[in-house]
From TrEMBL:
Organism listed in the record: Paracoccus sediminis
Full protein name: Aldo/keto reductase
PANTHER family: AFLATOXIN B1 ALDEHYDE REDUCTASE (PTHR43625), ALDO-KETO REDUCTASE YAKC [NADP(+)] (PTHR43625:SF40)
Domain NADP-dependent oxidoreductase: from-to ranges: 13-279
GO MF, one annotated term: oxidoreductase activity
Length: 319
């Protein structure tokens, strides 16, 4: 697999997002998750991404039980589960969450530690200062921010250099192209693209709307609600036809498009099963291929917002 830089580390250009191990998108079990992790490494993946909120520690526990210390590992903190959901970025809470994550991950150090969501009341310079202390103490190799604006990236990076910024980015979510990807490139920060396969919309076959109410958050996500859901399936159909005509897998072409948007971008698709990893084969996409993809899926084609109003709390808007 092609290699890309994530801070001082060279990692596989495609990472692995372990959110689904927490049961966020459907039932799974530890044995299946462990097979999936083994298959990912066999395929050249060397960067694994998780968070303390994924299954309330379940994803981290599974990765800890896996026991591989030869992979580049990232986890996150900052979201406080509850109704309504809250966010904390104070030093005491960050330290508490890190110690809990390290215990579940069976590690004394994690290569990358993210603030999952920013708490507006705390200056990001203070947060960067906390993370700098954790780097100096050897607890983390570097830090990142998630779902933030370019202005926040500049402020945090000036206080202590950022390793990575993680925001949603895919063929149907292109907001980061309006300044965030460029800011990361300018500052030498890796941009980690989560949900690069549109939460299943760019899977091998068209997604079937069979979400578990109250568990699978797509059940309340505007893009997955009717009439938007059917409209999005129809909008993506020409892309599927293009992939079939070219001999590409749909996930592979979608990942290839993300990778082509910048050599500092590392997408982190996720899956519950090892079998889906075979669909991530990335074709060589030339300028003509990328132009054809943009012709069938132009910027802004998606029907519905990527999050509902209740899910937008603590996500920084800048356009």
């Amino acid at each position: 697999m092609e290699q890309r830089w994530l801070g001082p580390h060279s990692v596989g250009a495609i990472g692995f997002g372990a959110m689904s191990f927490g049961g966020m998108f459907g039932a799974t079990d530890e044995a299946t998750s462990l097979r999936c992790l083994d298959a990912a490494v066999d395929a050249g993946v060397s960067h694994i991404d998780t968070a303390n909120i994924y299954g309330m520690g379940r994803s981290e526990d599974i990765i800890g039980n896996w026991g591989r210390h030869d992979v580049h590992l990232a986890t996150k903190c900052g979201i406080v589960n509850g109704t309504p959901r809250a966010v904390r970025n104070d030093e005491a809470y960050i330290r508490q969450c890190l110690e809990e994550s390290l215990r579940r991950l069976r590690r004394e150090h994690v290569e990358l530690y993210y603030i999952h969501r920013r708490q507006p009341e705390i200056p990001v310079e203070d947060v960067a200062g906390t993370m700098a202390k954790l780097v100096q103490e050897g607890k983390i190799g570097g830090y990142g921010l998630s779902e933030v604006a370019p202005s926040t990236v500049h402020r945090a990076h000036a206080e202590h250099p950022l390793t990575a910024v993680q925001n949603e980015f895919s063929l149907w979510t292109r907001l980061p192209q309006l300044g965030l990807i460029q800011a990361c490139k300018e500052l030498g920060i890796a941009f980690v693209a989560f949900s690069p396969l549109g939460r299943g919309m760019f899977g091998r076959t068209p997604l079937v709307r069979d979400f578990r109410a109250g568990i699978d958050f797509r059940d309340t996500n505007p893009r997955f609600l009717e009439p938007n859901f059917s409209a999005n399936l129809a909008a993506i159909a020409p892309f599927r036809a293009l992939c079939a005509a070219r001999g590409w897998t749909v996930p592979g072409a979608a990942l290839g498009w993300v990778l082509a948007q910048g050599d500092h971008i590392v997408p982190i698709p996720g899956t519950r099963t090892a079998e889906h990893l075979y669909d991530w084969r990335v074709p060589e996409l030339g300028a003509t291929d990328l132009a054809e993809i943009d012709a069938v899926l132009p910027p802004g084609f998606a029907h519905g917002d990527r999050y509902g109003d209740h899910q937008m709390a603590f996500i920084e808007r800048y356009c």
